[in-house]
Every structure is written in structure tokens, then in C-alpha cells.
Amino acid sequence: DTEVTQTPKHLVMGMTNKKSLKCEQHMGHRAMYWYKQKAKKPPELMFVYSYEKLSINESVPSRFSPECPNSSLLNLHLHALQPEDSALYLCASSRGTGELFFGEGSRLTVL
Amino acid sequence: QKEVEQDPGPLSVPEGAIVSLNCTYSNSAFQYFMWYRQYSRKGPELLMYTYSSGNKEDGRFTAQVDKSSKYISLFIRDSQPSDSATYLCAPAYMEYGNKLVFGAGTILRVKS
């Protein structure tokens, strides 16, 4: 089972809203990732959690706040976003080394 | 210079053709090499994974890595219309997690 599950699939929010994206995997992977993908562009790394600790933050604005409650779950809390933050947000997980497995993504629209 | 260079295409081929997709990279630290396929409005799907130089075959797909020339290839035999998608090369190295760098992605269209 190589499944990474992301919810919600679609989200529309205003610039003053607070919302969260959720990601879950049950493959026993100890690294989890958030990527952002704009149309016709490759995914861009935002955050990496390794053994439930934030290990990489690619200079992401503070209006994006990641959280890793346990080894199977990853959240991305969103607050005061801008329209240019509209994108596909992808979660991925991996073993210590090797392949990253991606979820289907959460498509975010900021009005 | 970008760490990973990939021609964005689009590449258009007839059904049954052999497709060659390529990337070059500049970072010698890359140890793992992945190819992802992404359909429109979907997440990337892992196609092939190789460690270090060499070839790997899986059905109609063959991945090649030449670390001496920093060149990565994916070959698709007997291409099908269902292969129409964006193909992303993604070399990676370990840095507090698996640091993966995507190429720009090549749009492939297989015409029936």
C-alpha cells in the first residue's frame, strides 16, 4: 500500500480565513513533506519533517504553518493567505532514503 | 545554472513510438534518481527509481543514469495514448530528509 491521503481535495478561502490541509500515510515512513505546485510548473519544496521534527523550511512565509502531530499525520495551517498562494499543495512521504510517494494534492483557491 | 535541466516540450509522438526523455544535472551530490508521471490536476506518480549509475527496466519503461556525464534518461517503448502526461525527472540526495529537486517536466502527447 503506497498511499498518501490528502484532505480536502479542494479548498476555497478568503484572505482573512484560517484553514488547514491534512495529510495521512500508514506506510511507516518517517519523513513527510509539503510541496507547492503552480500551474505548468514543477513542485517546489516547502517543508520537510524527519522523525516528527521540522528539518527543512525553504524560507516559506509565516502565513503557512506546518505541524506533525505524529508519525502518520502532517498538517499545513493557513492564515491570511494571498491570492498568489492559490496552487496545488502536495504532501509526500518517504523512508529514510529513497522514493517519495505523493498524495493527489489539495487544490487551494484564495479569493 | 539550474541544478536540473529538462526540456519542457511538448513532445508529440504517434502511438507505438519509442519515447526518449532526458535531463541533465549539475549537483554531484545526487545519489537517487526518480521519474514521476503527472496527469493533469493529479499528484505526481512514481514511475522509476534508481540508485547511482546504471539501467533499470520495468515493463515498457527503462531508466538510465550516467553519473559521469550527469545525464538521466527515461525510455518508453510502444507508447500509448494513456502515456500522455507530464514527466518529471527528480534526482535527490539526503539532507535532513530526502532532498529531491524536480526538473521542469516534459509534456508528452501520444497520438492515436
Task: Explain this structure.
The complex is a heterodimer of chains A (111) and B (112). By secondary structure, chain A is mainly beta. Helices cover 0% and strands 59% of the residues of chain A. In chain A, strands 2, 4, 5, 6, 9, 10 and 11 form a seven-stranded mixed sheet that branches. With 112 residues, chain B is mostly beta strands. Chain B is 0% helix and 57% strand. Chain B has strands at residues 4-6, 11-14, 19-25, 32-38, 45-51, 54-58, 61-66, 71-76, 85-94, 98-100, 106-111. In chain B, strand 7 and strand 8 (71-76) form a beta hairpin. The N and C termini of chain B lie far apart (37 Å). The interface between A and B is medium-sized, with 29 and 25 residues.
β-strand amount of chain A: over 45%
Uncertain runs of chain B are none
Order of helices and strands of chain B: EEEEEEEEEEE
Biggest sheet character of chain A? 7 strands, mixed
Instruction: Give the N-to-C terminal Cα separation of chain A.
Output: 36 Å
Helical content band of chain B: under 10%
SS class of chain A:
mainly beta
